[in-house]
Write a structure and sequence with these properties.
Length: 607
């Protein structure tokens, strides 16, 4: 969850590092710090809270001479979010400094071992074990690289780290295992970072480090080594085809709002190259030699889990494929019954979600086929799955995911059409209608987003008093109700419960009163009569209702929110941004930090 950046080159390093850390703020953090070598000494500056606190410390220092350094934003896992626990951490001799993302699971044993050797610790973190262990082995006469090898071979857990040492002021050592780390290749300068936006202002040439690899960087050179055999490794350089403007707000007040309004373009990007309009077929070249699933198990977390739940309805209806959907953190520990002919699909925006990645590895251990659905090229899931399908959503900066879910739903819908066609279940008329509706979606959403935004802006002050909300839906709208409730919780901090509407009378209805409003997903479909009955039960108990519905539904509620009568399941792509915009406007009205809600991080790379 932390953000790492390292720079070695010809520019003032601290400026580059601070700029890079700002571009990694979306990952969530509670403290920040930088370290650099100057005059045969390692200098460390760190602070609690936002980056401007760190900048205030740096502006009073003469630091412009240094051209190599490392920086970090920390989201606390071991030790309180205090300045002493902030990164970088120093070795006992104060000649090494290290930043780290991940969790060292055996840090207590290693700490005891080092204390017995006379090493003193200055923090409560697991990270400090790394720098102290490297220092210890270096003191025993090993080279820095060999000291790193020795250390990492003793470590259990996940890590991405960057290290400097004052006798080598223009060198950075870095490595990874189960946490993302990317090398940026420049002209007379090189970068290391947790994510591409950290250095995209300076280079588009990147190398995605693999697990159990170490890299040694100088301004003009880089060398990657295998942790297993210490041999040098060659890695392909990838050119990134989006620029830093894609990761900026483009005039919107928040990244979240920008990303909601990007959804029409996201759908266009998802559809590009996937539809043969002449043949009315869906194309997945990645799956041409992949077996048709007899049964599909979808494994995901959070918003991606809700996308998987939504897809279950579609895949079973269109492709007649039985689908199970598991929360990744439950899947990996329940000893699931997986056969070698089963197909597991893991969904993750970042491609680095720890529990989802662990589910992938469990499936591979049991010889199941794995499809990865993710947004980040070169991510761990993308590399480790048998087949990867990219969602093409572009960088998503806001912690609360919006366009990523839209892209996941589109790709899952396309998959249902692809597999349904492979099984010869779809008539020519069905295919032509569904493909036509898909191609209409971007314009439909584009036409309505501003109207939805105005409606959300109108409703937010009206319901800002609420401490709790019900979100109710049936069928395809049940997973969307869960997602609507999640968005409201994430960014406005209002307690919200998503429910299948038919379940309300089995207990939750006891909560209904005039102070507990309901947000109903009630489009004009075959389930509308049942939904009306549920909402009448809410009204009988004095509950106020907002209802996303269509003009002919004749719902009598406190606040009908009329959306176009688009055919199911396509209407889901109108309901989704409406839910997102309502949560967004509630958070803005209440003065919350929309893009970086408290206690949350973008990429959950630890359990």
């Amino acid at each position: 969850m932390c953000g790492i950046i390292g720079y070695t080159g010809h520019r003032p390093a601290t400026q580059i590092i601070i700029e890079g850390l700002k571009r990694l703020e979306y990952r969530g953090y509670d403290s920040a710090g930088v370290a650099f070598c100057l005059q045969n000494k390692v200098h460390v500056f760190k602070s609690q809270g936002k980056l401007n606190n760190l900048e205030n410390k740096l502006c009073s220092q003469e630091i412009y001479l240094t051209t190599t350094g490392i920086g970090h934003t920390r989201w606390a896992t071991h030790g309180l979010p205090t300045e002493k626990n902030a990164h970088p951490h120093l070795s006992q001799n104060k000649r090494f400094a290290l930043v780290h993302n991940g969790i060292i699971e055996n840090f207590k044993e290693l700490k005891h071992y080092l204390k017995d050797k006379g090493i003193q610790f200055n923090s409560d973190t697991d990270t400090e074990v790394l720098v102290q262990l490297i220092f210890y082995y270096h003191e025993q006469g090993k080279s820095i690289l060999d000291a790193i090898y020795e250390t990492l071979n003793q470590v259990k857990g996940s890590y991405a780290f960057a290290l400097i040492e004052c006798a080598h002021p223009n060198t950075i050592w870095a490595g990874r295992h189960s946490s993302p780390l990317i090398l940026g290749i420049g002209q007379g300068e090189n970068f290391i970072a947790s994510d591409i936006p950290a250095f995209l202002n300076y280079t588009r040439e990147v190398i995605f480090l693999e697990d159990n690899e170490i890299v040694e960087l100088t301004p003009s050179t880089y060398q990657i080594y295998s942790l297993k055999n210490k041999k040098g490794i060659s890695r392909k350089v990838t050119t990134i085809n989006w620029d830093i403007q894609s990761a900026q707000k483009s005039g919107y007040k928040h990244f979240m709002l920008k990303e909601i309004f990007e959804q029409p373009k996201v759908i266009q990007d998802c559809l590009r190259g996937r539809i043969d309009e002449c043949e009315n077929t869906v194309l997945f070249s990645e799956l041409e030699n992949f077996p048709l699933p007899a049964r599909l198990n979808i494994v995901a977390c959070g918003t991606s889990f809700h996308a998987g739940m939504w897809a279950k309805y579609i895949l079973e209806q269109i492709a007649h494929i039985p689908v199970e959907v598991d929360i990744a953190s439950e899947f990996r520990y329940r000893n699931p019954l997986i056969n070698k002919n089963d197909v597991i699909m893991v969904i993750s925006q970042s491609g680095e979600t720890a529990d989802t990645l662990a589910g992938l590895r469990l499936a591979k251990e049991k010889n199941a086929k794995v499809i990865g659905l993710c947004n980040v090229v070169g991510s761990s899931i993308a590399r480790e799955a048998d087949v990867v399908i990219y969602t093409q959503a572009g960088p998503e900066i806001s912690v609360a995911s919006t366009k990523a879910m839209c892209s996941q739903m589109i790709m899952l819908f396309l998959l249902s059409l692809y597999w349904g066609n492979k099984k010869q279940l779809l008539t020519p008329n069905f295919k032509s209608q569904y493909i036509a509706h898909l191609l209409e979606l971007p314009e439909q959403i584009e036409t309505n987003l501003q109207i939805f935004h105005q409606k959300a802006n109108h409703l937010a002050p009206k319901y800002s008093w609420a401490n709790s909300f019900f979100y109710l839906g049936r069928g395809l709208n049940y997973p969307l109700a869960l997602e609507g409730a999640l968005k409201l919780k994430e960014i406005s901090y209002i307690h919200a419960e998503g429910y299948a509407a038919g379940e309300m009378k089995h207990g939750p209805i006891a909560l209904i009163d005039p102070q507990f409003p309901t947000f109903a997903l009630a489009p004009e479909d075959e389930l509308l009569p049942k939904m009306k009955s549920n909402l009448e039960e809410v009204q009988a108990r004095g509950g106020k209702i907002i209802a996303l519905t269509n003009i002919n539904s004749k719902l009598e509620v406190d606040d009908p929110w009329i959306i176009p009568n688009f055919k199911s399941p396509f209407i889901s792509f109108l309901i989704l941004p409406a839910l997102q915009l309502f949560a967004y406007e509630m958070a803005v009205y209440l003065g919350k930090d929309v893009d970086q809600p408290r206690n949350l991080a973008k990429s959950v790379t630890v359990e």
